[in-house]
Fold Beta sliding clamp.
Amino acid sequence: MKLSIERAVLVKAVNQAQSVVERRNTIPILANVLIEATPDGVSFRATDLDTEVVDRAPAQVERPGATTVSAMMLNEIARKLPDGALVSISADPSTARLTVQAGRSNFSLATLPREDFPVMATTEYTANFSAKAAELRRLFDKSKFAISTEETRYYLNGVYMHVAKSEDGPVLRCVATDGHRLARIDAPLPDGAEEMPGVIVPRKTVAELRKLLEDDDAAIAVSVSETKVRFATADITLTSKVIDGTFPDYARVIPNGNSRKLEVDATDLARAVDRVATVSSERSRAVKLALDEDRLVLSVNAPDAGAADEELAVAYADEPLEIGFNAKYLQEIASQVDRENAVFLFNGSGDAALIREGGDTSAVYVVMPMRV
C-alpha cells in the first residue's frame, strides 16, 4: 500500500476515527485504525465493538492495499506535522511496518494484520430515511444533557429515538431522562421513517454523532434496525449497536395539570442561578424560587458558607409559590432555550415543573423539585 494525502485531510479523517477507540484496550487490534486504500481514495475505520466509524478521504493512491496501525499514534503524528504538508503513507507486509513521511520527517510504525481487525456485521435495516443535519443536531443536542450516568439503569444511558404522536401528527422524537429531569424534543417526521423501531442511542454514539452534524444543510442518511443504528454523510459512516433495554413510559412523568405560569428571560435566569449558587454546598446545589406577582426571588442558604439572593422581574400572576430545584439542572434547562423567554408551569412545591420555550411545544423539559 502506498498513498499521498494532504495533512489537513489526514488530521480530520484520523481524528474522527480515533475518537471511537477506547483509551485502555485488552485487545490490541482495537487500539488500531484500519487503513484501506483503493483507486478511489482512502478510508480510516475504527471500532470498540459497539460503535464503528468509517471516514473516507481523497488521496493519490499509488498502490492499493490495507493495514492497521495505532490510531492514537497516527493521530498525534498527523497533528504535529507542519501545515500544508503532503504526507506519504506506505505499508510493507514483509516488515509489518507503516512508514509515514512528510518533508524531512520520517516515522516507522508497527502494524497488525488487517485480517485481525473486527468489522461490524452488516444488518438489514428496517427503516431508511434522510434528515437534515440541523434537525438531527437539535434533537440530540437539546436532549443529551438529561442522559443518565447511572450504569445500573443502563436503559437510561442514551437518547430514546422513536416515532411518536403529537398534536400536529406523527413526529420524530428524542427523549432522555435520569429520573430527576427529562427532555422531550420533536421534529417533523422524515419520509421513510414511519416504520422505524424505537431505539436507545448510547451516550458515546450521541457524542460521536455531533461531529457529523456540523453542516446545517447536509443530508444525513439514517438507517435503523432493532439492534443497530447508522448515520452517514458523503464521507463518514457511524454505525452503533443500540442499548438492549426498554425505555420507561416517559409520558407518565410529564405533568398535564400544572396551571401556575411563570415567564422569564432564559439567559437572565441561567446567570442569576449561577450567581446565587456560588455559595451553595456542592452536595445539594439547591436554589429556592420564591414567586409573587411579577417577581421572582432566587435564594441559596448554605449554613457553612453563607447566603445569597437575587430578584428578577418576571411575568407571574398566580398565587405565591416557593419551590426548590437543583441549581445545575435549572441552568442546563435554561441554556437549552433558544427563544428569549422560558415558560415554567408549576402545580405545587412538591410537584415536577414543566418548562417550554415560549409558545413552542416541540421542546418540553421536566425537572423534579428539591426540599429547601
